[in-house]
Design a protein that fits this description.
The chain is of the alpha+beta class. It has two domains: about 1-35; about 55-249, Galactose-binding lectin (Jelly Rolls, Sandwich), CATH 2.60.120. Helix content is about 20%, strand content about 35%. It contains three helices and eleven strands. The protein has helices at about 1-35, 40-45, 60-70; strands at about 80-85, 100-105, 115-120, 130-135, 145-155, 160-170, 180-185, 190-195, 205-210, 220-230, 235-249. Strands 1, 3, 4, 6, 9 and 11 form a six-stranded antiparallel β-sheet that branches. A five-stranded antiparallel β-sheet has the order 2-5-10-7-8, with no helix packed on it. Strand 7 and strand 8 form a beta hairpin. It is globular, with a radius of gyration of 27 Å. The termini are far apart.
Amino acid sequence: MNLKYLFVVLSLSCLLMISSCSGNNDQETIILEESNPPHQVADELDKNVIPEENKKKKSDSANRQVALDIVKLDKNKDLEGGICVDDFNSGSKPNCLGGDLGAFDFMPNDFSQSCLEAYDPGMKMGDSGFSMRLDYDVDSTNPAFNGFWTKLNNFDASHFSKLIFWVKGDQEYGFTDVFKVELKNASGETGKYYIHNVSAEWQMISISLSDFAVINDFSDLVELIFVFEDRIASNKEGTIWVDDIFFVE
């Protein structure tokens, strides 16, 4: 009789242990599901940021180290002896000077020409942050130009001698090896400079402010613009990345 009673007790204990283990597994599954909320994807789309896993890998480590050696970025986004216009590392507006930015189209109603901007974490200078990806198309039967603008908020560049930034073309999708840079001041003066020999590797562009010949006053700059033009583009449709825009002494 005692043995029978003992057998019943042991059986009930086993059933209770199995039930307890099953309950714990269900709870762990719920926690794992909640740790990956669906709104994260929506947030990325709202910021117009390209998910990193959908982009090609960044340039080789040697090129990135050369960039860091030359640019010498610090936590305040200032270049040694210079000021950051935008390094795009925040992944959102505004730029480092507090200015707005965006893409523009000469003829918005002509859907055969366009320029789209996006913060890209998959192709950037350095080991973290973003670059600005510009997908342009000036292949139209109408006159076509478009590009990217960033406001300088009346920045005083009179104590600086150069504008520098990094640029790279998309080898797979194609890119133009020439485009225009414009600098504008509050007096309405617009200086222009053409960038040549853009390649599929990151390279630093250095422009002397004196090359923006039309501008007489650099103490009140209002806008910097990158322009893709159908009449000079070596490839009328493609992708260009821009990163780490600075005024330097």
